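Exercise: predict the fold of this chain.
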Amino acid sequence: MKKRMAMLLMLITVMAIARTGWGMGFTGAAFELGASARRLGLGGAFTALVDDETAVIHNPAALGQLTTIGFSSLYVRQVSGITYGSVSLAMPWVGFNMSLVDSGIIASPQGAFRYASQAITISGGVPIGPFGIGVRWRYVRVSSPISGGGWTIDPALLIDAGSIRVAAMFESAYSVPISYASGTDESFDPSLRFGIVATLSPAPDVWWNAAFEASGLFSAKARFGAGLETWIGGVGARVGYDGQGPTFGLTIRFSGLQLDWAYTMRSDLGGSHRASLTFRF
């Protein structure tokens, strides 16, 4: 029964992301959106907290702490009907993610325009006492308006001291620029991502997580985010700020299924809903 449900979830997700889209105009757009609605509800502050299948994207050093095999999918509904999709498959020590971005047809004074890219991430991580070390390999292919592809290697570290977790990831530590068919190249900017989370459990089955994260350090795109999360049994709620506006989220977890929902507020473009579905077996 569980295998049938897993196959059904995978089929539904692949069909959904085949129709997804997102309008973005920078290198590796498919990398920047993450793979978890839980992360988005926390204002993006997830690198130190991640404890699920999306570690393949958010911190491969946490893969060594996984004890189950899991499949996770993310669906993002943006303004003007633009969407984004991602699927992750992970097990102890290794994980895989695929993300797709497609803006659809965008009208402009110069004519119709479309941005589309696909990204693949393969990650590995091992635990060494209270430490976790990992590395992820990311490949992005731009298929429109001009085809091209490039990749990066990103080492990561996680320190788990019980109630305090600290994480760091050197993004694009080594990379091969996206080489376009037109003969031009577009480089990935190396940067540091740092996160810290404090956990408090005042009663059985009750947890509080306070998380902070800084991304894009030592680059021109530095950002900061923070979030507060509470769990009571299999129900979680969170609130955060991602540097652009407030974020909110809810989680319902039962048996091997988990449903995460997030909402981001934007004063200029309005809000957007994001949902991810996880199946563990």
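Check your answer against the key: The first strand starts at residue 70 and ends at 77.
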